[in-house]
Amino acid sequence: MQQKRIIDLLETKPAPIEISINGWVRAFRSNRFIALNDGSTIKNLQCVVDFENFEESLLKKITVGAAVQVFGTIVESQGQGQKVEIQVSKVEILGEADPEEVKLTILSPKRHSLEKLREEAHLRIRTNTFSAVMRTRSKLAFAVHEYFQKNGFNYMNTPIVTGSDAEGAGEMFRVSALDPKNPPLDENGNIDYKQDFFEKETNLTVSGQLEAETYAMALGKVYTFGPTFRAENSNTSRHLAEFWMIEPEVAFNDLDQNMDLAEDFIKYVVNYALENCKDDLEFLEQRLLQEEKSKPQAERSEMLLRDKLAFIGENNFKRVSYTEAIDILKNSKPNKKKKFKYVIEEWGADLQSEHERFLVEKHFKCPVILFDYPANIKAFYMRLNDDGKTVRAMDVLFPGIGEIVGGSQREERYDVLKQKMADLNIDEEELYWYLDLRKFGTAVHSGFGLGFERLVQFVTGMGNIRDVIPYPRSPGNASF
Ligand code: 4AD
Ligand code: MG
Question: Which residue ranges form the domains of the chain, and what is each CATH number?
Fold first, then answer.
């Protein structure tokens, strides 16, 4: 007997041979129609049961949430919405689901808020929304690898436990094997990390960039795709404490080439999703439309989800220097009317997401790459421009998301980097290897980091980043 997956079965023609399908019951109508889903597609398979020929006790166990194996033949569907359905000859109950208990969970067939679904993250993947999001996430991850592999990049894995703070922002989770109740102390009464597992202070990585640079300076083109951790107390719809980042790093690339790479890469993966996640994106587009109906007109998006994705592929990203952006923002209506929470007063101000989104959504109405930021609001490793006050940084800003990519050309000059580290009190001993790169065959090189969840958010149209990763980690939440 052939075992089929629903995604394949829906594409086949009616045939008088017996097949079987495993799945979970989404609905059982009129003691006759099972809507079966096996996770292979957003679409359910209609399975028609002639209840007259089945035991009452068996029919009672075909309940929402139950796992079943259905046997039958593929026939032309009488109903609307599908070409074929299954004429059922036998049903095997693989795992029951007690309706009384199901009623108390988000499996119960009624509308649940996304907040409620988050509380039951182990079950929410059985809903249409989350299965669509997570299948799309999986396809996007594949597209990321495919893009870089096709373009001659080497996939490398950077350490998750590290002694360095790549971003210098001090937002790290400490890693220690010491007894927190009774840690060994040094002569000054401080915790003596020399007695810890690694014999030094360590933390979870905030970025694999610095290690990726060492590999780029030997393999030429590399990329990482791994988890990163930030203990920043940002309770927003775009921040996670644990997120996945993709970090390409390329020797001999300057900032312009870095921008070209970021733009080409993003277009590729977005197009890939458009072509390979059709059913899921169609569903998510409708979901978003429904969700936006409850919002005021001004907050609704002007384009449908898939049109928005196609727009990315078809249009150039606008490249604007930080200095130009500040001029635009200073003279903007929301700034003059003090509608921004952080009013832009002068050059040097750090841009908040309200400013980024104004530039993208209201002013340019397309993705924007901002470059040449003031040195003092960016990380230590970025290459200093000849003006002595800006660095070769770039951020890619997206509608609805804000910053999706952060990157830069790296400071390749030994003396300049050494001075910068000294100015910022960055421990040279900890990063001697990073300085070594500038001693032995240094070269212009660049890279960037793309937050994978922000990409998934953009592609799926989900408003909250906690709904595009299976088990979100955020302040006050590490369930599951
Ligand atoms: O701008 P960030 O901090 O840049 C870096 O970490 C560089 N070392 C990257 C590089 O040049 N190799 O982070 C890069 C991206 C951001 O643009 C954003 O998309 C995402 O990572 N990101 C987060 N995503 C979710 N939650 C958070 N808390 C994030 N912080 C950054
Ligand atoms: Mg950034």
Answer: 2-104 (2.40.50.140), 128-159+215-317+366-467 (3.30.930.10)
